[in-house]
Structure to design on (182 residues):
């Protein structure tokens, strides 16, 4: 029966800890700015998951206590801001921290070698195309797996101008796309 019940004291502590850790997140997010929960890089995503883990363990367990959980959050926010600043100043840090975006489709052509590199199946690709409201492959200009693992679908309208190469700067194998446009 003790698996299903708890004391009023324990419930009160969960409530108090929840309010405290929530307040910590609000303050740290305000200090950290908009990037705090962004998914601009795979590192940002990892920090967001770690923040969620710290919040959960602090709220429902006696250990870590609230102050320790709040300090862990502050450390994660500080590391994220520090790495973001270093990424902005150093391409070496950026290369170490970020994955490289990868072209999965060049127009209607599926780049099977890149699908294998990204560990993406054709079924995954079809799902992402449907998610992007593609109803005909002729609507696809490019499909890119971003540094975060997200998939971007660039649409092609019949009368659309050519794709600006700047948009695919740094995307592995994007030259395949521009070879198709010529």
């Amino acid at each position: 029966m003790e698996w299903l019940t708890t004391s009023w004291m324990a419930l009160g502590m969960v409530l108090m800890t929840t309010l405290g850790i929530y307040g910590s997140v609000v303050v740290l997010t305000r200090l950290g700015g908009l990037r705090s929960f962004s998914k601009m890089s795979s590192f940002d995503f990892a920090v967001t998951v770690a923040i969620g883990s710290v919040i959960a363990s602090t709220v429902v367990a006696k250990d870590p206590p609230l102050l320790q959980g709040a300090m862990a959050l502050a450390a994660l926010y500080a590391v994220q801001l520090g790495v973001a600043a270093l990424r902005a100043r150093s391409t070496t840090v950026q290369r170490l921290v970020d994955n490289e975006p990868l072209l999965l489709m060049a127009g209607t052509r599926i780049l099977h070698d890149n699908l294998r590199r990204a560990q993406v199946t054709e079924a995954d690709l079809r799902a992402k195309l449907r998610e992007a409201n593609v109803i005909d492959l002729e609507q696809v200009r490019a499909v890119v797996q971003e540094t975060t693992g997200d998939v971007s679908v660039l649409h092609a309208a019949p009368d659309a101008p050519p794709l600006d190469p700047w948009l695919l700067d740094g995307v592995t194998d994007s030259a395949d796309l521009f070879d198709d446009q010529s």
About this structure: Residues 102-181 form a domain with the CRO Repressor fold (CATH 3.30.240.20). The chain has two domains: 8-96, 102-181. The longest strand covers residues 140-145.
